[in-house]
């Protein structure tokens, strides 16, 4: 079904570059382009660049697409959060956008992107933040693509399997960056300790789809463990943030190796959606950000850009999974080989 037990995760916002996907294929892994926050034209250009470079490697590659949620409602909580962000903006010398209809109704070019993938198919298409309709899954299959859905609980996995997707990316909350969750979180006694326990819960619930494990996997030993537990592959993101081919800001790469950042936490402060990041000033000072994605993402975008320009790691979204200490700098090929040679 897939050509490697190692998947380099799609990381939106510039981290996943064509160079990273190409390096993954050339080193024996599967890379994913992240279409989130890109125009359809930019997405198409990246697909063409990768396709031409990996065609002789024998490796598949994929494109990840964000499933849009319902339009954001302009609540008093959201307006109050924007007002609080103005204080950060004043400190940084940046602006905060108004709550315009465009910020409240952003679908990230959903219709255009999925049509592009039907008209110009790629080997793998994965979905995050929700599920595609069954008809879209059938259309992608007819175009020749395998379809993966990202899930975080047995309930989400059951819903995804019912659509006929080919595999499930099982994301534990130890993963860095955004949670893919789209259904209410399980109650405390149903939550899993790690991705292996989460996979066990999915199997106990009768989910029979192939599983790709994600979250808290940063070493060859951990990769071996999730494969032994029944995953057909593991998807790693934080492990590649510091790679040469990664498009992450240098400030972010350096922070992963900075000893003053010593813990990660789930936060909505930067985007309005739960995401795991290194705890810095911004995370600590905004524990009550509203659930309003992607509107909050757009509100904080100028602040994050100014923080990056000023080398201010305390005001930047430093996405990191719980295994961030194992992330290495250098060519992605070296990271991949170190992970695969022991398996």
Structure overview:
The protein is an alpha/beta fold. It has two domains: 6-69 and 107-248 and 324-340, Aldolase class I (TIM Barrel, Alpha-Beta Barrel); 74-105 and 262-317, no CATH class. It has helices at residues 18-27, 40-54, 76-92, 101-104, 110-119, 134-143, 154-161, 195-204, 220-228, 250-256, 281-285, 295-309, 332-340; strands at residues 6-8, 30-34, 61-66, 124-128, 146-151, 167-171, 177-178, 211-214, 233-236, 264-267, 275-278. It has an eight-stranded parallel β-barrel, surrounded by eight helices. A three-stranded antiparallel β-sheet has the order 7-11-10, with no helix packed on it. α7 crosses α8. The longest helix has 17 residues, at 76-92. The radius of gyration is 19 Å and the shape is globular. The model has no long low-confidence stretch (mean pLDDT 97).
Provide key terms for this protein.
TIM Barrel; 3-stranded antiparallel sheet; 13 helices; 2 domains; alpha/beta; 343 residues; globular
């Amino acid at each position: 079904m897939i050509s490697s037990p190692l998947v380099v995760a799609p990381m939106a916002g510039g981290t996943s570059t064509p160079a990273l996907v190409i390096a993954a294929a050339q080193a024996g892994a599967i890379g994913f382009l992240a279409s989130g926050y890109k125009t359809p034209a930019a997405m198409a250009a990246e697909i063409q660049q990768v396709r031409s470079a990996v065609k002789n490697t024998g490796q598949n590659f994929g494109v990840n697409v964000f499933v849009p949620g319902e339009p954001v409602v302009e609540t008093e909580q959201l307006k109050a959060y924007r007002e609080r962000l103005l204080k950060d903006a004043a400190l940084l010398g940046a602006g905060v956008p108004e709550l315009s209809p465009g910020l409240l109704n952003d679908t990230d070019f959903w219709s255009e992107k999925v049509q592009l993938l039907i008209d110009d198919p790629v080997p793998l298409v994965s979905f995050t933040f929700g599920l595609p309709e069954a008809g879209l899954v059938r259309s992608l299959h007819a175009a020749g693509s395998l379809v993966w859905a990202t899930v975080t609980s047995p309930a989400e996995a059951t819903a995804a399997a019912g659509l006929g997707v080919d595999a499930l990316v099982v994301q534990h909350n130890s993963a860095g960056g955004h949670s893919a969750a789209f259904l209410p979180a399980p109650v405390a006694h149903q939550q899993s300790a790690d991705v292996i326990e989460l996979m066990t819960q999915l199997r106990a619930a009768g989910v029979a789809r192939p599983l790709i494990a994600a979250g808290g996997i940063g070493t060859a030993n951990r990769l071996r463990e999730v494969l032994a537990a029944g995953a057909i592959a593991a998807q790693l993101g934080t492990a590649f943030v510091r790679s040469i081919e990664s498009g992450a800001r240098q400030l972010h790469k350096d922070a992963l190796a900075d000893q003053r950042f010593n813990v990660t936490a789930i936060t909505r402060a930067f985007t309005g959606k739960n995401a795991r990041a290194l705890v810095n000033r911004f995370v600590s000072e905004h524990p009550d950000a509203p659930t309003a994605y992607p509107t909050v993402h757009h509100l904080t975008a100028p602040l994050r850009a100014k923080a990056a320009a000023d080398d201010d790691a305390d005001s930047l979204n430093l996405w990191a999974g719980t295994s961030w200490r194992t992330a290495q700098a250098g060519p992605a090929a070296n990271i991949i080989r170190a992970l695969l040679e022991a398996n």
